[in-house]
Specification:
CATH architecture of the largest domain: Sandwich
Bound molecules: dinuclear copper ion
Shape: elongated
Oligomer: single chain
Strand content: 15-25%
Radius of gyration: 27 Å
Number of helices: 10
CATH class of the largest domain: Mainly Beta
Strand order of the largest sheet: 3-2-1-5-8
Structural class: alpha+beta
CATH superfamily of the largest domain: Cupredoxins -  blue copper proteins
Distance between the termini: 58 Å
Number of domains: 2
CATH topology of the largest domain: Immunoglobulin-like
Mean pLDDT: 90
Low-confidence stretches: none
Length: 336
C-alpha cells in the first residue's frame, strides 16, 4: 500500500513545526514574557530529546546483549543483581532530578508572567460564553472605557490584565505575547505582558467552555504609544451620530427594539450590559469574537440570524424586515 511505501514521509512531519511563525504562535514571541515561554519550550524539548535518546540507547544495548535461547533467560547472579540495583537507583535519581528541574524552570518562567510591573496599563478582561469584555481602568473615572474582543496596548509598556469569568472557566492565551492564564468564576487571576514590537496578535480561549469555544478568539493590537493614546481618546467618545437617513432609522431600531436591552451604545439610550459594547463596534476588525471580519455584509448576516452563524450563543434573532436589516447594518457599520 502506498502509505507504507512512503513511511519516511512521517519522519518529515516534525519539520512542519519549523514553520510555526505567524500571528498566533508561541514560537514567534514578541515580548519578554513570550520569550520566557519560548525558552521553556526549548528547554523541555532538549531535555526530553536527551532522555528519549538515552532510553533508546539503553534499549538497543539490552537487545544486542540478549542471551542465546539455550540459556535460562531468568537466571540471575549476585553481581548481576547488584549492577541492576545500581542501574535502577541511578535511573530513579536521574528521573527525580530531571522532573524536579523542569518543574522549577516552569515555575520560575510562569511566576514572572503574573508578577506586578512598574506603572502598568491595567486592563480588565471578563470572559463570557463566547466573547471577551475589555475594560480599561484609569485613575480618572472619565477615562474608563469598555470595549470587546480587541485589546489595544502601547508598545514597550507593561500591561497587567486582570482576569474574571462571567459564567464558566475560560483561558486567556495570546501566545505571541505571554503564556496562558485561566479565567475562573469567583476568582481573580492576573497575567502580565509587554509587547516589544508593533503588530496584530491573535489570541484564543484555551479552555473548553462550551459549544463555541473554538469561536472565542481575541486580538491584541500593539501600537506606538501616541497611536495608542489616539485610539483610546477616540474610544472614549460617544457613538457617532447618523450621517444618513438610513443610519438614523437604524439607530431608532437599535435603541427601540430588543438590541438595547443587551447592548450599550454610548450617547444613546441603549445601555444593556449582557452583550458586547457597540459604541465603536465598526472600529474593531472582527465581530462575534473573531468569527467574521467587520463588514456591512457580515454585520447584516449576524443580526439576521446569529444562531446559524454561531449556534448556541446568547444572542436571539430579532425579527426585522429587509429594510430594517439594511438600516441596522448601515448604522452599526458607521460606529467607527
Ligand atoms: Cu471560552 Cu473556551
Amino acid at each position: 500500500m502506498k502509505f507504507v511505501q512512503h513511511r519516511w514521509i512521517y519522519l518529515a512531519l516534525p519539520l512542519l513545526a519549523a514553520d510555526c511563525g505567524g500571528w498566533q504562535s508561541a514560537l514567534d514571541p514578541h515580548g519578554p514574557d513570550a520569550w520566557n515561554v519560548r525558552d521553556l519550550i526549548g528547554l523541555f524539548a532538549i531535555v526530553a530529546s536527551i532522555v528519549w535518546s538515552m532510553v533508546m540507547l539503553a534499549l538497543a544495548g539490552a537487545l544486542s546483549r540478549r542471551r542465546p535461547a539455550s540459556q535460562r533467560p531468568l537466571a540471575t547472579t549476585p553481581s548481576g543483581e547488584r549492577r541492576a540495583g545500581i542501574a535502577v537507583s541511578a535511573a530513579t535519581v536521574a528521573t527525580v532530578l530531571t522532573i524536579g528541574g523542569l518543574t522549577l524552570a516552569s515555575y520560575l518562567a510562569t511566576r514572572v508572567s503574573s508578577s506586578v510591573r512598574q506603572d502598568p496599563l491595567v486592563i480588565r478582561v471578563r470572559a463570557y460564553q463566547w466573547w471577551w469584555e475589555i475594560s480599561y481602568v484609569d485613575e480618572a473615572h472619565a477615562r474608563n472605557l469598555t470595549t470587546a474582543n480587541e485589546i489595544h496596548v502601547p508598545v514597550g509598556r507593561p500591561v497587567s490584565v486582570e482576569l474574571a469569568a462571567a459564567d464558566v472557566i475560560h483561558s486567556f492565551w495570546v501566545p505571541n505575547l505571554a503564556g496562558k492564564q485561566d479565567l475562573i468564576p469567583g476568582r481573580d487571576n492576573r497575567i502580565a505582558f509587554t509587547a516589544a514590537s508593533t503588530g496584530l496578535y491573535r489570541g484564543q480561549c484555551a479552555e473548553f467552555c462550551g459549544l463555541q469555544h473554538a469561536h472565542m478568539s481575541l486580538f491584541v493590537v500593539a501600537d506606538p504609544p501616541d497611536q495608542f493614546e489616539a485610539w483610546r481618546n477616540a474610544q472614549l467618545g460617544r457613538a457617532a451620530d447618523p450621517a444618513t437617513d438610513e443610519q438614523r432609522i437604524g439607530r431608532q431600531i437599535v435603541v427601540g427594539k430588543a438590541c438595547a436591552s443587551c447592548h450599550t451604545v454610548r450617547g444613546t439610550s441603549a445601555a444593556g450590559v449582557l452583550g458586547p459594547d457597540l459604541t465603536h463596534v465598526a472600529s474593531r476588525s472582527y465581530i462575534a469574537a473573531g468569527l467574521l471580519p467587520t463588514t456591512r455584509g457580515s454585520i447584516a448576516a449576524w443580526v439576521a440570524d446569529p444562531q446559524t452563524v454561531k449556534p448556541g450563543n446568547n444572542m436571539p434573532m430579532v425579527p426585522l424586515t429587509g429594510d430594517e436589516l439594511r438600516a441596522v447594518s448601515a448604522y452599526l457599520t458607521s460606529l467607527k
